Amino acid sequence: MKTPNGLQALIDDGVIDEVLRPLKSGKEAAVYVVRSGDDVRCAKVYKDMAQRSFQQRVQYQEGRKVRGSREARAIGKASKYGRKQQETAWKNTEVDALYQLRDAGVRVPEPFGYYHGVLVMELVTDADGYSAPRLGEVELSAGQAREYHGVLVRQVVKMLCCGLIHGDLSAYNVLVGPDGPVVIDFPQVVSAGSNNAARTMLLRDVNNLTASLGRFAPELLDTWFAEEMWQLFEAGELRPDTVLTGVYKHDERRVDLDSVRHAINDAREEALIRQQGREAAAEQD
């Protein structure tokens, strides 16, 4: 096939030898099956900002660290250089997360390097050597659904212990390999400790998986693993091997808005009285 834009440089540098076929094209990138020596891998070519349809990027970027104060200032000013740096940081996010999560024992594709803006990584296959299907494309028994759900909840816990939340996790960002689920696609990964929407995104990630697998094992729909793990995370008690129950007691107390308003008004009046006292003392001096 004709070499796609972005991959010729990898061939020229000897990183890959041949592009075999396209694997998928999504909102963030196009993925190709490539040959590197005797190994078959995949190469993820990120789309430029103008080509991407992914929305609400600002929400996902909140809390992300930028390498270098100059870059951070440029991004803040939204200059041409700043937009370029923001684009670079966006593409680097998945690469950094992939290595970090791999080292933490999360089931992700093995990364083999990042060259000219292209991520080369393991091609996840099924038992017959074909490209692994996505979780949302397979039929499961109730037992398989429960097993996969347990595995994926454990992966989410490990990610959270690294301070990361996938941010766009669903049955279509999970591949089913011979050894079970493999989590993919991390360009929108969220900082658990620095993003105000972190809890909401964690709940959405886990609920997406639970809803999909709950079609085969309905009892999963009565579990609350995301709420449980977030509560432990906030308390500093979540560990990669923490045993979760899926049981969570929701706070059903209603907020007493009148009491809150009275407390705010009392605080304002007290501050006003103190200010008036300071002004009176200043006039006497």
Structure description:
A hairpin with a 3-residue loop joins strand 1 and strand 2 (29-36). This protein has 285 residues and is α+β, with helices and mostly antiparallel strands. The radius of gyration is 24 Å and the shape is flat. The longest helix has 28 residues, at 257-284. Residues 51-56 have low confidence and may be disordered. Helix 3 packs across helix 4 and helix 5 runs parallel beside helix 7 (225-234). It has one domain: Transferase(Phosphotransferase) domain 1 (Transferase(Phosphotransferase), domain 1), CATH 1.10.510.10. It is 41% helix and 16% strand. It has helices at residues 8-12, 57-61, 69-77, 80-103, 142-161, 198-213, 225-234, 257-284; strands spanning 18-25, 29-36, 39-46, 111-115, 118-122, 164-165, 174-177, 180-183, 190-191. The strands form three sheets. A five-stranded antiparallel β-sheet has the order 1-2-3-5-4, covered by helices on one side. A two-stranded antiparallel sheet has the order 6-9. It starts with 7 loop residues before the first helix and ends with a helix.
